[in-house]
């Protein structure tokens, strides 16, 4: 089998690279600082790429990256990656959202302290052999009010640490529940203006989005307390750099600590050179500990995606905890099997897919199972162009309505049932997952079974009369097809039955035609699951 090709284009830890290189089925290239033109020329050869924050993974990039299946972002923010473009193409984007947050929180605090105590200005003075303490007086953080914009992972870590400094912490984040504010002992600001009016120090920890770019500009700075101190260890441009530079010159802003700038990695900010400004070149995640965690974790995720496994940190899939994922694997396999049956047994284009989850199955992350059903449904007609990432989009672009229903309740049997409609014709299939995570097919077209799906299966509808099984066995035997398992189900009042056989090898078209021609066989389909 051909080896999958991975390229690492930005620096990750040696441990991460070693992990990739230890995979026998991967060919790994590590090449940093590749000029953009050259990268676009070579990226078409690779199945996976690992980047950090500098590489722009955009439309132009995707057009060149014809074989790409996964983008690994060694870090947290994905603002350099066009997620929609990846989703459209079925490319999975993975990141390491937890691995560097402690380092980023600590660096935030470092910048806060350095800018409040003129550390950089003091160092420059000493380097020019000047010992002049009168112009270096700083301020304490003790009993001051810290305003946090964005109370997510890093905002929360900063909160806990600055509460130990006995700062009063207030925060503005309209997207998190009040309970989190309460649990952290943080005063909730209903509006940004509320925070601006109260805070002595402001630190921002939001992602870079349409809503957050230039979130703090000229007007917002006017609403702050005179002499406010700012920190940004999130993304360049959340504070408008020109407005902050002007406000520093006017004395409205006393200092700013910045790890990030709008123009990285070639900064041209008006803040550069101001003595009230402490700057670092996006070092928030650059610690030994964070880089080890990031490198190992991104390598593992990329390997898992290439091996067809689900990963907890896929940015363009619903987020799951690793424990939740464990309990899902059998359901994802079941969903794909149920979906795959349709286009291998029927020809009519699908209008609607209805999925009902019953009993324990209803308590799972069902959107993911529905995606696996859609992936299975479209697999026979789209092959590798459909996967868990773009399965929903594939349904939408084909005008297929997808409806999910749930029937909770401990007393209910664990069951996933699928009804696929084409005009007024319907196709149904259902299954369950055993406690050992093995999927079982329990119903196809109203016939009931308890069958563990296998790679190759024959489904044959027949008249419910003696001799049918014998005829099938003889014919398959003559064609050297070994039957591994067989179940027959009947609908007594109709005189109809359906056999499902799992077989050890593919069944040739000619053999299938002979089966379909047997006396009493109504239809015969060979399916690959
Ligand atoms: N400097 C570095 O090296 C470094 C390292 C890691 C992360 N980061 C950056 O730090 C930032 C925060 O990361 P995180 O892991 O804490 O993210 P997170 O997703 O855990 O938290 C972000 C929070 O921002 C909130 N938010 C979003 N839009 C908002 C708005 N308009 N107003 C107020 N709140 C809003 C969200 O509700 C969320 O709670 C990101 O921009 C990330 O890229 C930087
Ligand atoms: O070091 C990097 O690649 C950026 C780190 C950080 O900004 C992140 O979002 O993880």
UniProtKB/TrEMBL annotation:
Its EC number is 1.1.1.95. The keyword Lipoprotein does not apply. GO terms for biological process: L-serine biosynthetic process. One of its GO terms (molecular function) is phosphoglycerate dehydrogenase activity. It catalyses: (R)-2-hydroxyglutarate + NAD(+) = 2-oxoglutarate + NADH + H(+); (2R)-3-phosphoglycerate + NAD(+) = 3-phosphooxypyruvate + NADH + H(+). Keywords: Amino-acid biosynthesis, NAD, Oxidoreductase, Serine biosynthesis. PANTHER family: FORMATE DEHYDROGENASE 1, HYDROXYPYRUVATE REDUCTASE. This is D-3-phosphoglycerate dehydrogenase. It comes from Acidaminococcus fermentans.
């Amino acid at each position: 089998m051909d080896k999958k090709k991975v390229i690492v284009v930005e620096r990750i830890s040696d441990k991460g690279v070693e992990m990739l290189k230890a995979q026998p089925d991967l060919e790994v290239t590590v090449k940093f600082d590749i000029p953009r033109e050259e990268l676009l020329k070579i990226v078409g050869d690779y199945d996976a790429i690992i980047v950090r924050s500098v590489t722009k993974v955009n439309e132009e990039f995707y057009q060149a990256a014809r074989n790409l299946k996964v983008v690994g972002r060694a870090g947290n923010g994905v603002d350099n990656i066009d997620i929609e473009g990846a989703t459209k193409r079925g490319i999975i984007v993975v990141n390491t959202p937890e691995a560097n947050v402690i380092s980023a929180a600590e660096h935030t605090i470092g910048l806060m302290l350095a800018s409040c105590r003129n550390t950089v200005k003091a160092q420059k003075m000493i380097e020019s052999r000047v010992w002049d303490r009168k112009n270096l007086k700083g301020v304490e953080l003790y009993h001051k009010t810290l305003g946090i914009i964005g109370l997510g992972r890093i905002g929360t870590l900063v909160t806990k640490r600055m509460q130990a400094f006995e700062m009063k912490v207030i925060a503005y984040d309209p997207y998190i529940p009040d309970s989190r504010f309460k649990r952290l002992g943080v005063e909730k600001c209903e509006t940004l203006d509320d925070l601006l009016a109260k805070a002595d120090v402001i630190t921002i920890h939001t992602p870079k989005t349409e809503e957050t770019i230039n979130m703090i500009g000229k007007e917002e700075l006017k609403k702050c307390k005179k002499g406010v101190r700012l920190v940004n260890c999130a993304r360049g441009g959340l504070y408008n750099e020109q407005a902050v530079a002007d406000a520093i010159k006017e004395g409205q802003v006393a200092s700013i600590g910045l790890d990030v700038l709008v123009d990285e990695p070639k900064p041209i900010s008006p803040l550069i050179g101001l003595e009230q400004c402490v700057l670092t070149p996006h070092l928030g995640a650059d610690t030994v500990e964070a880089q080890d965690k990031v490198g190992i974790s991104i390598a593992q995720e990329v390997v898992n995606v290439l091996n067809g496994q689900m990963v907890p940190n896929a940015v363009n899939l619903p987020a799951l905890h690793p424990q939740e994922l464990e309990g899902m694997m059998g359901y994802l396999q079941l969903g794909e099997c149920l979906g795959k049956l349709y286009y291998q047994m029927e020809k009519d284009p699908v209008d609607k897919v209805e999925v009902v989850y019953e009993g324990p199955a209803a308590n799972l992350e069902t959107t993911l199972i529905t995606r696996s059903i859609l992936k299975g449904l479209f697999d026979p007609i789209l092959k590798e162009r459909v996967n868990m990432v773009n399965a929903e989009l594939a349904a939408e672009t084909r005008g297929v309505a997808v409806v999910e229903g749930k029937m909770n309740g401990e007393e209910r049997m664990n069951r996933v049932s699928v009804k696929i409609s084409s005009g007024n014709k319907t196709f149904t299939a259902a299954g369950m997952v055993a406690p050992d995570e093995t999927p079982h097919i329990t119903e196809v077209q109203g016939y009931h079974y308890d069958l563990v799906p296998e790679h190759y299966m024959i489904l044959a509808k027949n008249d419910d009369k003696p001799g049918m099984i014998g005829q099938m066995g003889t014919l398959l035997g003559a064609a050297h097809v070994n039957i591994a398992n067989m179940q027959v189900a009947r609908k007594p009042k109709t005189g109809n039955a359906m056999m499902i056989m799992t077989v050890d090898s593919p069944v040739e078209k000619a053999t299938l035609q002979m089966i379909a021609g047997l006396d009493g066989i109504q239809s015969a389909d060979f399916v690959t699951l």
